[in-house]
Design a protein that fits this description.
Layout lengths: L4 H14 L4 E2 L8 E2 L2 E12 L6 E7 L2 E6 L6 E5 L6 E6 L6 E7 L2 E6 L4 E6 L5 E6 L7 E3 L4 E4 L4 E5 L6 E6 L1 E2 L2 E2 L3 E7 L2 E6 L4 E5 L6 E6 L16 E7 L4 E6 L4 E9 L2
Parallel strand pairs: 3-21
Antiparallel strand pairs: 1-2, 3-24, 4-5, 5-6, 6-7, 8-9, 9-10, 10-11, 12-13, 13-14, 14-15, 16-17, 18-19, 19-20, 20-21, 22-23, 23-24
Bound molecules: calcium ion (CA).
Length: 267
């Protein structure tokens, strides 16, 4: 059967569409990029988590979890015993602010706010407030590399900030197969990669901080049974890493459990 050039072009477009979950970009193939592989997971251990904690920031330091919880009037900074989920130290954030991402720098904790354009800087040991930092736009997730902070704001952008001033040094757009990955939320810098929760999904993106490309995905579907998600906002959010023992922890907003997990390649 002869296929006219116009018909052939249509078929090419249709085929490109059908396989768009594998590749994307220019249908001529000139700029096609493969999408990142999707890993599944294995639960290593499970721990209790406070079901009133609307988790927006999570790190592991000095043998404890430090957590930032959100919502107006319920926002806190807390130090949590991993094994029991017990809150051993807590600071209540003024109800005017909705707390977000959390990171540590030189013995100080830095806590973002969603729409107040302010980050609070606390002493790690006492939780006494030292100062505030200002930034433009929304605050969602916060992590750090050796040079400074890395901030997400719910878009497809990661901003790299000076550790003392929060001045923006550079930014990258996060893409997978050339397509923007939006709604980047809680972050964790792990062995040269930025791990990011993607809001309202069960996925963590592993991102190259240099190029912004997603290197791999971890699909955590089924980690927390939907029956325990009593609130439509009770989504996967919160990644912490214990570098000393190479343990990766994840939880979600209002989840009753916090998990140590390992990524496992799909067979
Ligand atoms: Ca984190």
């Amino acid at each position: 059967m002869m296929i006219s050039p116009a018909r052939r072009a249509l078929l090419t477009v249709a085929l490109a569409g059908a396989s768009s979950w594998l590749v994307s970009g220019d249908a001529t193939g000139a700029s096609v990029q493969a999408r990142a592989s999707i890993d599944t997971f294995r639960v290593v251990k499970s721990y209790p988590h406070d079901t009133s904690a609307y988790t927006q920031g999570l790190i592991y330091r000095n043998g404890f979890l430090f957590e930032s919880t959100g919502r107006h009037g319920q926002s806190t900074l807390r130090k949590v015993r991993l094994e029991t989920g017990e809150v051993v130290q807590q600071h209540r954030v003024d109800a005017a602010h909705f707390a977000e991402g959390l990171e540590e720098w030189n013995g100080q904790l830095v806590q973002l706010t969603w729409q107040s354009n302010i980050a609070f800087v606390y002493d790690l040991a006492t939780f006494s407030m030292r100062r505030t930092l200002r930034y433009a736009g929304e605050g969602w997730g916060l992590t750090r590399d050796q040079q400074g902070f890395i901030l997400s704001d719910g878009t497809d952008q990661l901003r790299f900030l000076h550790p003392d001033t929060f001045r923006e040094v550079r930014r990258v757009r996060v893409t997978d197969g050339g397509v923007s990955v939006r709604d980047l939320n809680e972050l964790e810098y792990i062995r040269g990669e930025v791990y990011a929760n993607v809001w309202h999904t069960d996925r963590i993106a592993r991102i190259s901080p240099e190029s912004g490309r997603v290197l791999r995905w971890i699909d955590l579907s089924g980690l927390m049974a939907t029956g325990y998600r009593l609130d439509r906002e009770a989504v996967l959010n919160g990644i912490a890493y214990d570098a000393a023992t190479n343990r990766l922890f994840v939880t979600g907003k209002l989840w009753p459990r916090l998990f140590e997990i390992e990524a496992v390649p799909r067979r």
